[in-house]
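Appendix B. Chain record.
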Amino acid sequence: MTDPRPILFLDVDGPLNPWQAPVGRAPSGYTTLPMRPTGWEEPHPPLPVRLDPRHGPLLLGLGYRLVWASTWGPEANIWIAPVLGLPALPYVDWPRPPHRAPDGVHWKTRRLVAVADGGPFAWVDDEIGAPDRSWITRNHPGQVLLRCVDPAVGLLADDFEVLRRWGRER
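Structure tokens predicted for this chain:
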């Protein structure tokens, strides 16, 4: 039996980790944690990642199939999921190095549409633009919600409400 719930593709940096917030001024509810994912080993200093543990239960309560759509890949299950109280989630495997296509479409867009395979999905990221919206409209037959999040503030109550409402109404 196929899972009828829509997919929620989750980016880490921006929506869950408001990496552009001023140093020392993480948004309310966030904790800054030193992390060492691949690429941040010694001699580099740990990567400061800001996470709000309240987001895990909120995400789980939305009624979506949660899927990591981040360059963190499987490491999101090691570093991010435990802090948020999320189980290990499936992740999108990016088949080639990131690059913006000549038409301005984000490097994630085509792959996410392929993974969704015509089904409904929501995508939360800080880099969604007009070319992505246009390309998805032309190339994906299913229902879609694209939610661009400010990377200085991360996910807000309004974002969760929009996701909740769209998930119920579609």
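Further analysis of this model is presented in Appendix C.
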